[in-house]
Amino acid sequence: MITYLGRRAFHSILSVIGLLTLVFFLTRLTGDPSALYLPLDSTAEARAAFARLNGLDQPIYWQFLDYLRDLLQLDFGESLRQNRSAMQVALEAFPETLKLAAVAITLSTALAILVGSLAAARPGSMFDRVASFVSLAGASAPDFWVAIVGILVFAVGLGLLPTSGTGTWAHWIMPVFVLMLRPFGLLVQVVRGTMLSALASPYIKTARAKGLPRQKIIFGHALRNSLLPVVTVAGDLATSLVNGAVVVESIFGWPGIGKLMIDSIIQRDFAVVQSTILVTATAIFILNIAIDLLYAVLDPRIRY
Amino acid sequence: MSNATILKVEALTVDFLSDDEPIRAVDDVSFHVSRGETLVILGESGSGKSVSTSTVMDLVDCPPGDIVAGSCLFDGIELSGLGAEARRSINGRRIAMIFQDPLAYLNPVYTVGRQIEEVYESHGAGAGKDARANTIELLRRVGIPEPENRVDFYPHQFSGGQRQRVMIAMAIALKPDILIADEPTTALDVSVQAQILDLLRDLQRETGMALIMITHDLEVAASMADRIIVMNGGKVVETGIAKAVFSNPQHAYTRRLISALPHGNAAEAPNKRSTAIAGETLLKVEHLTKHYVLASGAFSSKRTFKAVDDISFEVRRGETLGIVGESGSGKSSVARMLLGLNEPSAGKAVFAGENIFEMNEKRLMAFRRKVQMVFQDPYGSMNPRMRVYSIISEPWVIHRDILPKNRWKTRVAELLELVGLLPEHAGRYPHQFSGGQRQRIAIARALASEPELIVCDEAVSALDVSIQAQVIDLLADLRTRLSLSYIFITHDLPIVRHFADRIMVMKDGRIVEEGQTSALFGAPRHEYTQSLLQAVPRPKWLTQA
User: Fold this and answer.
1) How confident is the model at residue A116 (pLDDT cuts 50, 70, 90)?
2) Is the Cβ–Cβ distance between B476 and B272 less than 8 Å?
3) What is the number of other CB atoms lying within 10 angstroms of the CB of residue A99?
4) In terms of domains, do A63 and A92 share one?
5) Which of A103, A134, A287, B93 is the most buried (most CB within 10 A)?
């Protein structure tokens, strides 16, 4: 167990280093920040001074070594845009994304388990067909389209909800709803499928022969055995949400890490891009280890 | 029969809906059972024996199931069309059931204790500490060692026999009036089977419950039954007092079943051993050993597990060597090493003058042509998306020199006829055949590369008794016609009695006894062989007399 965690952590650190290397060079392929941060008519001397100040005049491998050395001292660089610690900028945005992701994934998983189980309990029923239709439609609808139509109808048209930003609980409704659509749709399908095969398994016959009540058979015996694939898919979806729901955050002006990431890329704010990647990658690795541990909790046959 | 009749099933008819016509699984079946009595429902696979009892428990899913007619009268209550609540008060409390494969029938994610406690809780017969104490007591009763600790174990942490004991504990928790046992010992080794059957008999004596036992195994049937009903094709073909049915079967099907019994009286049974042994040694195995190093845990150092421990034997041309052992005895490991599917840790195996384990890639190819294998589960070992023609001709794709391509079609037809199938079967898929036919296809595939030695690993274990006899007959016939040698691996000692020339009994990776078949059966020397022979169930009417 401890060995397992140690090994996972070691592999994770290796992956993060690889990822950061890749990101470092790729961001620099986007162009020179001085073109964006200095006035169009600034002189060559001013540009050179800006480059020197930010270490951009050095050869790229030298810049990389510098970056690594700073990393070891936990110095993640300065934001060009905000003139303060890049890591601080990333860490301020991240909780906003985390809150949104946690609410969306928790709600959609819980709802999908309920709907999927009930659909599987009576396959072919009206409820099953409606659930399948709604979930498939949800999983297939492009989120940016739903988001824009949502704003048009509920914010602009009816004036019920704010168009964007944060503050009140009403600000949460549309982003959470849009973020839930895809995970909910996929998870209903997964829950329904695994529940169907669980309900057909021999131990369900035993439960029926024991005279257990129906809801105990469905939610006690079948569901518990169906959870592993659900955790896998939900974990994967959670990962993509933690990564920052770029589109949704941008449309609803949600100050999360996805929006920060895309803004920083456009602005060539290299240090911030690298910091956001470091933060989300670390979070994703922690999430993956948590999912592995959850497997062992759910299935006593899995031991690390 | 008498006032004590507790369950009376009458004219039960069950269909299964399919795309075309409904398939009649159970056709006008009637039976009854009394308190304290054991009724055995005997039948081969597909005979409808399980469906009839599942209907009593309302375990048949409708659809696709469709209960067309019939009544099940249990202690004055009509069971068919019973509401969910009334049904719950009977299932698990008054009628309980155990199944063939306890690993699949126990929920893998709950401790066995939890699953037994659930029976008490859901029937309002105690919860919490009470239920747990009762559960531990039950586990002790069914013979689980250290029940105080084992109660918190998960199903996968028990052996097969123990798992069936757990199932039995769960079933008898509320002292039901009827226990239905659906092939309860089919997946178990003979010695374990004997223990489980003893346990069932003891429990019946203690509680006076009626026992309905479903089995395809004639010996198990004879050892348990007071009365017996024989089912075939969904119908009851014969019913009566067990002794009468066995000693004087009326129906042709029953007669055929009983004559197929490989364990019958040795004098009567036809001898299928080879008549002439060429004598020349084909395969010589010396000091074959396979060790597995088990991973070291946090508190234990590395351990070695000896799957096969220094065994030597030889097979001569035209001879059948039976390797007999229970699960975990290492018999399959031997087969896997001989076929080069596993590397041995030590030892050598000389086939036609050459050590198998030192062959290079090319020599190994040639060797594999000469040695073929037939597995236990022909369905699992055949690609379901390949037609029989492609399955049988595949060896010729690999070994190009066996047969020119223009002759493949005729040869496949010949091989199919050789194993008792029809040439037109070549265009079908494996799922379109019965288990026995699939095993014939597997044999045809093995024959395609013109082998000298065929290794059969539990090749007939999954088949019904009458089919087993047919496949053994086929193997014996092919041996004579093609002068083949066999290594026949099985857990079922009596099955090789009239087929193997020599028998090797394995236990814990070692050979405990080896000898000519008649000598071994006549006077088994080793204690383990004796216990294996004695573990074969004996008819109830003999033991009671």
Assistant:
1) very high
2) yes
3) 15
4) no
5) B93
Judged by a CB distance cut-off of 8 A, whether residue A209 touches chain B is: yes
Residues A154 and A128 in one domain: yes
For the record, the structure tokens of B45 come out as: 């696979």
Interatomic CA distance for residues B518 and B497, integer angstroms: 8
| H/E run at residue B13 | strand B5-16
Cβ contacts (< 8 Å) between A225 and chain B: which residues? 107-109
Q: Are residues A63 and A104 in the same domain?
A: no
User: Number of structural domains, chain A?
Assistant: 2
A2 → chain B, closest CA residue:
B298
> If you measure CA to CA, which chain B residue comes closest to A301?
B156
Final residue of a structural domain among A72, A97, A121: A72
**Interface check B58 vs A, CB under 8 A:** yes
Distance from CA of A153 to the nearest CA of B (A): 45
Tell me the per-residue pLDDT of B378-391, one tens digit each, with 9 for 90 and over: 777 788 889 999 99
Q: Looking at beta carbons, which residues of chain A come within 8 Å of B107?
A: 203, 206-207, 221, 224-225
* Cα dihedral: A20, A25, A29, A32 (round 10): 90
User: Which residue among B111, B123, B154 sits closest to A211, beta carbon to beta carbon?
Assistant: B123
**Is a pLDDT exceeding 60 seen at residue B71?**
yes
Q: What are phi and psi of B230, to 5 degrees?
A: -105, 125
Chain mean pLDDT for chain B: 85
Q: How far is B134 from chain A (nearest CA, A)?
A: 16
Token duo for residue B368: 């594999």
CA atoms in the 13 A half-sphere facing the CB of A31: 10
Q: Kindly state whether residues A33 and A92 are assigned to the same domain.
A: no
Q: What is the pLDDT of residues A164-188, one digit of tens each?
A: 888 788 888 888 999 898 899 999 9
Asked if the model's pLDDT at residue B268 lies above 90, the reply is no
Q: CB contacts < 8 Å between A and B, how many?
A: 79
Cβ contacts of A1 on chain B, cutoff 8 Å: 298
pLDDT confidence tier of residue B97, bands split at 50, 70 and 90: very high
Q: For A2-85, where are the alpha helices, taking DSSP H only? A: 2-28, 34-37, 44-53, 60-72
| CB pair distance less than 8 Å for B92 and A300 | no
The answer to whether A86 and A275 are in contact (CB under 8 A) is yes
Given an 8 Å threshold on Cβ–Cβ distance, is B110 in contact with A298? Answer: no
The nearest alpha carbon in chain A to B105 belongs to: A203
Residue to substitute from B82, B95, B107, interface A, most A β-carbons within 10 A: B107
User: Other C-beta atoms within 10 Å of A133: how many?
Assistant: 10
**Rounded (10°) angle between helices B527-534 and B190-207:** 50
Three-state SS for B451-473 is CCEEEEECCCCCCCHHHHHHHHH
List of domains in chain B? 103-173 (no CATH), 281-536 (3.40.50.300)
CA distances from A91 to A72, A81, A86, B71, B83 (A): 18, 16, 9, 71, 60
Residues of A within 8 A of B298 (CB-CB) are 1-3
Give the three-state DSSP class for A81.
coil
Tell me whether residue A102 is in a domain.
Answer: yes
Contact A203 B108 (CB under 8 A): yes
For residue B4, what pLDDT is reported?
82
Say yes or no for a CB contact (<8 Å) between B110 and A224: yes
What pTM value is reported for the model?
A: 0.76
Determine which of B53, B105, B114 to mutate to test the interface with A (most A C-beta atoms within 10 Å).
B105
CATH number of the CATH domain containing A231: 1.10.3720.10
Nearest chain A alpha carbon to B56? A209
Q: Spell out the residues 6+ positions from residue A4 whose beta carbon is closer than 8 angstroms to its own.
A: A304
Query: How far, in whole angstroms, is CA A12 from its chain's centroid?
Result: 18
